[in-house]
């Protein structure tokens, strides 16, 4: 069987469509993950034992079990819990984004926690001694500084998440990898097609890496904190 | 203004404060001296509840500092200046100063800025309003930190070794701002190693060692005629 590179060229637009969906799924999961991550990080640092224990349990579960299993748990589990007779149209997208968001929330929680803890205690003390509440100190003093320090690890997490979104092919979401697989099934050209798929992933992860580097430069110019 | 009764503080099993009693009057400048580890910083930090006292009573401006009290209400009236400045590095000098008035006192931005610029002028840094802390020298940072505390219009100012982290040539500029404040009648509690400042500005000197007040009195009395042998030993080492 000879290699047919024309297959790649012919299917560029379809792959691009898959890549776009991959980006959208990742963006959705990132949005959910950042929100969950922020709350879980704060809960993890709470003075209340129950709140802290809840956050630890959440983080342990989602970091300690495979994303693939979590995708199935959400995709099949929610309809069972809610006793749905049939799955709504396009439910797989909701389930896929949710599963990835829940998963990345655990990782992002740890990133934010480390960022918050890296800020000198004196910053909180200065803010509190000026009469700010704990929440005000967090919002105006701690989080803006912590956020800047979390940009590099957050970039890593976003890149990992984008690559992991290929797992969503398992619930028939036609993202980049799934699209590539379908085309291979039709054309019997695995090497050129999967190379093309890999290249698409590479371009997207590079874009994230560049964006992270840019943010780092932009936010870093004012101070060394 | 500040009343302290039988204040005890433990860190784990270590007793750092072993029963402090003291009364600080309005407009009084009290200088706290003593060897490191004597508990003087801990004492100061108890006064605005950065440290939770283990036992004892503290009353600030008529309000008892117990667990029920709104701590933030007390802290608004008590400014604090730290050894390591603790300026917010992501904000300019002026932003550092106006943050708390805006957020805590809900002062409008224009007024907060106006007050902020006046305070910067007062500490001699009017032209540094838009500089970030890392572009300022240690002495300048500490003066911004003092302006930041003053922006809340506190009734009491606490200074926790405010000049100890400074290069020698910058100590003077910070002390001179503190002297101005004392002259204007601010109630001040100053933990310091600057004995010259204690003599010149202090209304009263408190000598602390091993978690208790060993001796207190007017600066001349304490410095010229220390009664407690521990005070004598301490002063002979540093004077």
UniProtKB/TrEMBL annotation, chain A:
Location of this chain's protein in the cell: Cell membrane
CDD domains, per database record: TM_PBP2
Residue ranges of domain ABC transmembrane type-1 in the record: 19-212
Cell membrane is among the record's keywords: yes
GO cellular component labels: ATP-binding cassette (ABC) transporter complex
Residue spans crossing the bilayer: 20-43, 55-78, 90-109, 191-214
Primary subcellular site in the record, as a coarse category: membrane
GO-annotated biological processes: amino acid transport
Record-level Gene Ontology MF annotations: transmembrane transporter activity
InterPro entries xrefs: AA_ABC_transptr_permease_3TM, ArtM/GltK/GlnP/TcyL/YhdX-like, MetI-like, MetI-like_sf
Protein keywords: Amino-acid transport, Cell membrane, Membrane, Transmembrane, Transmembrane helix, Transport
Topological type in the membrane: Multi-pass membrane protein
The family this protein is said to belong to: Belongs to the binding-protein-dependent transport system permease family. HisMQ subfamily.
Protein name per its UniProtKB record: Polar amino acid transport system permease protein
Record organism: Desulfosporosinus hippei DSM 8344
UniProtKB/TrEMBL annotation, chain B:
Keywords of the record: Amino-acid transport, ATP-binding, Cell membrane, Membrane, Nucleotide-binding, Transport
Span of domain ABC transporter: 2-235
SMART domains: AAA (SM00382)
Entry-linked SUPFAM superfamilies: P-loop containing nucleoside triphosphate hydrolases
Places the protein is found: Cell membrane
CDD domains reported in the protein's UniProt record: ABC_HisP_GlnQ
Keyword Transferase: no
Name this protein carries in UniProt: Polar amino acid transport system ATP-binding protein
Lineage: Bacteria, Bacillati, Bacillota, Clostridia, Eubacteriales
């Amino acid at each position: 069987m000879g290699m047919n590179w024309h297959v790649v060229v012919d299917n560029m637009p379809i792959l691009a469509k898959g890549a776009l969906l991959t980006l959208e799924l990742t963006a959705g999961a990132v949005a959910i993950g950042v929100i969950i991550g922020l709350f879980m990080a704060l809960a993890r640092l709470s003075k209340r034992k129950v709140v802290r224990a809840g956050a630890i349990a959440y983080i342990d579960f989602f970091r300690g079990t495979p994303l693939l299993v979590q995708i199935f748990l959400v995709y099949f589990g929610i309809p069972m819990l809610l006793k749905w007779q049939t799955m709504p149209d396009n439910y797989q997208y909701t389930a896929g984004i949710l599963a990835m968001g829940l998963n990345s929330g655990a990782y992002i929680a740890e990133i934010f926690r480390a960022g918050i803890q890296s800020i000198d205690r004196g910053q909180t003390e200065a803010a509190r001694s000026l009469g700010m509440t704990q929440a005000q100190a967090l919002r105006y003093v701690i989080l803006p500084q912590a956020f800047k320090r979390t940009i590099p690890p957050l970039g890593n997490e976003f890149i990992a998440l984008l690559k992991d979104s290929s797992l969503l092919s398992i619930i028939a979401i036609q993202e980049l990898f799934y699209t590539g697989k379908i085309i291979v099934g039709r054309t019997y050209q695995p090497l050129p097609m999967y190379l093309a798929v890999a290249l698409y992933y590479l371009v997207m992860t590079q874009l994230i890496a560049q964006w992270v580097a840019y943010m780092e430069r932009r936010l870093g110019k004012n101070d060394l904190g | 203004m500040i009343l302290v009764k039988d204040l005890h503080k433990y860190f784990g099993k270590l007793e750092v404060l072993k029963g402090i009693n003291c009364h600080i009057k309005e407009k009084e400048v009290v200088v706290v001296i003593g060897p490191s580890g004597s508990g003087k910083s801990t004492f100061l930090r108890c006064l605005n509840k950065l440290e939770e006292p283990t036992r004892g009573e503290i009353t600030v401006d008529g309000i008892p500092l117990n667990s029920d009290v709104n701590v933030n209400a007390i802290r608004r009236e008590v400014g604090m200046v730290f050894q390591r400045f603790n300026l917010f590095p992501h904000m300019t000098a002026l932003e550092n100063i106006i943050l708390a008035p805006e957020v805590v006192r809900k002062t409008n931005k224009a007024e907060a800025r106006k007050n902020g610029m006046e305070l910067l002028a007062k500490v001699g840094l009017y032209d540094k309003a838009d500089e970030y802390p890392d572009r300022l020298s240690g002495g300048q940072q500490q003066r911004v930190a003092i302006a930041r505390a003053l922006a809340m219009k506190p009734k009491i100012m606490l200074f926790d070794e405010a000049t100890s982290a400074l290069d020698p040539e910058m100590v003077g500029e910070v002390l001179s701002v503190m002297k101005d404040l004392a002259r204007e009648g601010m109630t001040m509690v100053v933990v310091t190693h600057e004995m010259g400042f204690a003599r010149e500005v202090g209304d009263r000197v408190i000598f602390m060692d091993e978690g208790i007040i060993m001796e207190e009195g007017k600066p001349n009395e304490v410095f010229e005629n220390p009664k407690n042998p521990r005070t004598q030993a301490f002063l002979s080492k540093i004077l």
